[in-house]
Specification:
2 domains, single chain, Cytochrome Bc1 Complex, Chain D, domain 2, 2 strands, 5 helices, mainly alpha
Length: 148
């Protein structure tokens, strides 16, 4: 065997490697897409959850908070806020979130201030339903600690 790689050998390595990794990518994509229905609880999306997502996006909550690791890290992670603050009880969490949103901004010195968004009760309930829904997505135990 020669110690040089010829142009045809290099071409074969390039095309063979490209084909292998393309097929590998297709396989991973098919595997991911087959697992999503079991993990993302899309069958539990209601009108209230959709309203909450709209409130989340309209008020740019992700500009300060992160959700399942995506977003800004200025304010707490909210993927598990339902478990942290509502003790996995929907009524308790909705009451908590309603009170929390109504008393913003807190006047604690040295604390980051969350703005007052003046949300309606329906919008707060929708946001609560959205956060409850996201907490039930199988996110491989993210975040790694309870406080996010």
């Amino acid at each position: 065997m020669s110690e040089r790689i010829t142009k045809s050998m290099a071409r074969n390595i390039y095309f063979g490697g490209s084909l292998f990794f393309f097929l590998f990518l297709v396989g991973l994509t098919v595997d991911t897409m087959s697992q999503l229905p079991e993990r993302d609880n899309r069958d539990q999306i209601t009108e209230s959850v959709a309203l909450g997502k709209e409130v989340w996006e309209h008020n740019n909550c992700i500009g300060c908070h992160s959700l399942m690791g995506e977003g800004a890290y200025y304010a707490p992670e909210l993927a598990n806020v339902f478990n942290r603050r509502g003790n996995s009880d929907e009524k308790t969490f909705k009451q908590y979130l309603s009170i929390w949103m109504s008393i913003q901004p807190l006047q604690n010195p040295g604390r980051r201030k969350m703005p007052q968004f003046n949300l309606t009760e329906e919008e707060v309930n929708g946001l609560a339903d959205f956060l409850i829904w996201t907490s039930r997505i199988d996110d491989n135990d993210w975040p790694p600690n309870i406080e996010g």
